[in-house]
Amino acid sequence: MRIERLPLLDARRVPRLAFAPRLHPSLHDALAALDDPDVPIAETYRRLTAFARRERLFRPSYEHVRRLIHALRRLRKAKGRGGTAHVLLEVAYNIRPPTALVDHLLDVGPAAPT
Question: What is the pTM of this model?
Answer without folding.
Answer: 0.55
